[in-house]
């Protein structure tokens, strides 16, 4: 092969025989402000990492790290779901897993939540003052910074790779 | 062919004879918090997946999964519309359909809603307390996380592919 | 020509002699909720599509579909403006026009509006209750979902294309 | 040269001898609603275009159009700063300047402001009614649509270009 | 070398022997409005630049500029963390460091904060008027513009580079 250039195929070449498709990682996140909002550094704090896409593809990538307990219908390889999530909370690890399997991050988007969560729904109140005392100012700050972020990954189907 | 490099054509080569163009998928989404906001995992919850673009192109890609009932003007292949939507709610399936037809996801963007929806417009009230009691705290949370997201896809016209 | 590869030039090759540059499309948008917020599907609803960039370049791309009536200074091919807009409201059509002329969508971004619009400024009130009665709950919903979105397009200058 | 393919180097080749790096353009923007919120078209309205990055690189690109008056420390070519801004307000012109020098727009992001600005801080009030009368409804609308947008540009260092 | 095409490998080729992976930079930012909100130019103002990813990879890139004091578990090269941050506040410098080591910026996203921070939690009040007097209107403006931004970088593993 004289000219087998495969530039810009941003995958690591280690996969074979799989099909392509989109997988979306999503999470609701904020920052850890500590008990009194006084933590010296506010690190990222993620809720569960949700996984959406074709079930078979998600299983291939995440294997044992995938929690399927809330995805009731176990049949149908071609089935799509948005009821999977990861057992760990390491976003970059999940991204690395996807890249190792030939996926490419093609887009991300993020949006802030609006308004404040209910500290105690039974009280029927959402006044800011409920959040603001020395004990729970950290909670309040975590509400302020709540956001939802989505990472969209895509892998080309294999027959493309064979063409080049 | 000495030098048939087709690097970075991020399509799967399986289409022929079609024209290029932009198609936008959009949806208003949130998370499913359950009756009392107590669901153990809050999964993605989508409203209808809207489809915008040239009618003929949208039909070619989505075929029977496309709901055209709200797009009154059926004539004009070159016509553009923003009144189509999908019959299913699987975002990744829609993305896979587009990729199979040579489309590439070129951009996404997202923005949060602001303020709260009206639980019962006739009551003329939007006080947070309307949302916050043990029965509807889940509704309130779903309002907080409401967002609109857009996925922009593009396919190059075929005569480009013939040039290489 | 032994090696005329032009991979990944994501243009259709149909242009010649033009210069490169950035053009931004922007629009304020929301969803059509209908008179009582009861429309069965809420489609995208755009305000005017604004066009920003070098005047000559914008004219070349959009021709007769460009409204220049609010751009007072007609002189200066090298002049930049943010006072142009399209006569139609089809976002995907505008994108297709740009792609046909060799432009590539390089980025998009979106942000939600905050607070509510003034239904009747003379009344000097912005209480949510002004929006929430059976007659205008659709207006209120449209305010909630208001957002601004920007599509950034770029075309490489032609002398690059001549080099390859 | 048998095989001088430089596909997808999205630069125009006109620069030489410069180093690579990131430069970020940022601006706070909104729309011009006019005195009474009655302007027939609401065009983009930018505050100053901020420039962040290595000082020497910013100077090379923007030359005389760069305002350095607020960047007190003039020494150190390797110094980074976020205290530069442009003398003009044409975003697309700034983007074109960067592209002409071999920079590529690699990402953009945008976020809405939250709450309302203070029309007159001395009055100690931020009630919506302060904004909503026939005279200042345009001001109020401009507050609603306030957002911050960032354009991230990157240029590869030259020794890469010499390799190909 | 007959066919040494390395198109679109957007790295500078200066690294060797490293592995690939994702690294995320994140920061909460706003603008500096000055004591009375009267600073003539409002420059970007960043809180700490957070670094997330595989510990070993983060160390390789940022070396001495990485603050690891809040990452209690020092063992495990394969460990992922979100408890690292940079000692400096120059975003573009951090980006340049990543690019020098073969990383590519693949995505960014941003979301606004919602609501206002607590100026003095012990007072239990968050009324806008607390922010709006001649002395602290700058604080208020800084709250309005608070946002969180994430830059996602990726480096391909080295064995890909050896293939070409």
TrEMBL record, chains A, B, C, D, E:
The keyword Cell wall biogenesis/degradation does not apply. Keywords: Cell membrane, Cell projection, Membrane, Phosphoprotein. It holds the Pfam family H1_KCTD8_12_16. One of its GO terms (cellular component) is plasma membrane. Residues 21-155 form the KCTD8/12/16 H1 domain. Coiled coil: none annotated. InterPro entries: H1_KCTD8_12_16. It is found in: Cell membrane; Cell projection, Neuron projection. PANTHER family: GH08630P (PTHR14499:SF136), POTASSIUM CHANNEL TETRAMERIZATION DOMAIN-CONTAINING (PTHR14499). This is KCTD8/12/16 H1 domain-containing protein. It comes from Acrobeloides nanus.
């Amino acid at each position: 092969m004289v000219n087998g250039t495969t530039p810009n195929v941003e995958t690591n070449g280690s996969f074979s025989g799989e099909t392509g498709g989109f997988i979306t990682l999503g999470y609701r996140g904020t920052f850890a402000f500590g008990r009194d909002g006084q933590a010296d550094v506010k690190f990222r704090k993620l809720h569960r990492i949700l996984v959406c896409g074709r079930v078979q593809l998600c299983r291939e990538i995440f294997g044992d790290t995938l929690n399927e307990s809330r995805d009731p219908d176990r049949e149908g390889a071609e089935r799509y779901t948005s009821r999977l999530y990861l057992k760990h909370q390491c976003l970059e690890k999940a991204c690395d897993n996807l890249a190792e399997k030939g996926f490419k991050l093609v887009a991300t988007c993020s949006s802030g939540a609006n308004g404040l969560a209910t500290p105690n729904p039974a009280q029927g109140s959402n006044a800011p003052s409920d959040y603001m005392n020395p004990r729970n100012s950290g909670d309040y700050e975590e509400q302020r910074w709540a956001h939802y972020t989505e990472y969209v990954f895509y892998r080309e189907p294999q027959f493309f790779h064979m063409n080049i």
